[in-house]
Amino acid sequence: MDKLFSTLSAEERQAWIADFQTWVASKFPVLEDASCAWSSEDREQMVYGLNLINAFPFCRSFVADSLMFQDYNRRVTAMRRCINQVLEEIKKEVSLQAIDLSDPKLLVRHRGRPTKLEQKARALEEERKQKEAEVEHPSLFEEDEMKNEPVALHTVSGAAGYGTLFHLDQWKWLMSKDLQEAVDTIRDLRSNAAAAAEKAKALAEAGVEPDKVSVYAKEAAKSTEAYERIYERVDNELATVYVRLKEDSTYKTQMLKRKVQIPELRSLLRPYYDRQPEGFKDKVIQSIMDNDPRQAAIRDKRKALKCRVDAIRKYLLRTDKPNTPKRIKTMTERIKELEKLIGKAETEPYYKVLEAAKNNPYVKPKKTKA
Question: Which keywords fit this entry according to its UniProt record (predicted)?
């Protein structure tokens, strides 16, 4: 399944949940049984289950590796962990869908601690208001990028000190949607890397053939490389935010509306910026300019001006047209237009072209009598 569970319609989610629950209840217990012979039918059922859990970003790395190596009998325990995570996510989804925000009693503030149902209802109401606000003030990032709530900076141990590095989950609200999904896979990637490395080490110590050991060694290296690339992307995006918080006026306005303390946030993001190569800031600023509608309008105007100037120059310098009175008149008009566009100094050479044309007018040949 390529689509994420969060993108499915209500009907599709119900169908997916029914299918998944049936598979977990009737098929997966057979695969978990130690006596499972792993016939072709058993393997097909494992693949079917993997395709189901692929609807969740935190399972995708595990699914991809499982389908690539096809060592399904070794992945049953990890599959159970993924299934438990998915079941927890489904419970959250079902409980949220059961809340009726139309009931005003759930949203009215009162003395005392709100019930769990009231807390969920109010959370959904806040999310709805936030989405409406984002529609009115769209971000330069993609639509879902800033949907998470900013972390409370003062609640983190050591947050006031320079160089504090938060847990990745605490920075998700600043990440793009695809990076958030990638971060969700890090834990599985690290687990896969550790398990494969341990397996390779055990096989090597047992004197197993190097070819068989290399399979697990390569899997460990691949998983390690994958999560290290994600860490690099995190550094890059957070460093980009550091620059935008100073240079991007639109982005700063959005943050201020969310009551973010920009100086404090920039001080926390500084370590990520310090890791970037020289010239990084200039690239981000150029990207901001490229995405600024005002700058885009200026660029379009400049492009149109250049095209018009080039067209006039081409017309004036043509040598394949006779210098008829009509052409000389048009040349005079074009030179005046060119002077308005680029100034008198740069237009001066084309006046000489006009004078040369006037001094060499086209003479219509006289008709000779037969």
Answer: Coiled coil
